[in-house]
Amino acid sequence: MTSVFDAPTVDDEVVLVGRSNVGKTTLMREIVGRKYDTGRRPGVTLEPNRYEWNAESFAVTDLPGFGFMSGVDEEKRERIKDGIVRYLEENADSILVAVHVIDASAFIEIVDRWEERGEVPHDVDLHGFLVDLDIPVVVAANKMDKVDDKDATLDGIAARLGYPPPWRQWDDIIAPVSAKRGATDALFDAVREKLSAQGREDLFKFF
Q: Is residue 2 a part of any domain in this protein?
């Protein structure tokens, strides 16, 4: 049986990963210029959305969100999470950049709440996992339009992910965006920097 987490039929890809309802699919739409199903309800994306440029042997893949998903039972949530982990492990060598999408307006509160309970927050765990796999990572701090003190918020995000503030010294890793408003320049700049480090300037036209 074909798995929804099968690898793309191209050589290289950029993947979007993160919790449910942080705006990955909206950001995917901004990158590829094509509409995908989105919604206010967490867990709309239950399998990868992928757009492939076969002539370039390149794809952008929006992996399902993890964590709480409305109307999705725990067993299925665990299967999805396991599928994401397996996908990243098996395709690490062909993933040029992982875009770790977070909700900047809620990230600090969520991380602090988990840590107060003595638990490792999902986003912190995911970020460390990507780094351990040696996949170049850019954090898309989405929904910045909902944030009042942008620098303080981004400094807090950087600190909780292990990057000493100020966040601006990590602008090749932490990119403030507002996907719904089409404000993605900082993200695209960071992605291009990661691609350039791998000699893939040929892919700049997609970002």
A: no
Q: What are the tokens at 31?
A: 């990158």
CATH number of residue 65's parent domain = 3.40.50.300
Domain count, the chain: 1
Residue for token pair 């809620």: 106
Residue 177 is part of which domain span?
12-206
Q: Work out whether strand 49-53 and strand 58-62 pair parallel, antiparallel, or are unpaired.
A: antiparallel
Quick: pLDDT tens for 31-71: 888 655 443 444 445 578 888 998 899 999 999 887 655 55
Q: Is residue 40 part of a domain?
A: yes
Structure tokens at 144: 């910045």
pTM of the prediction? 0.89
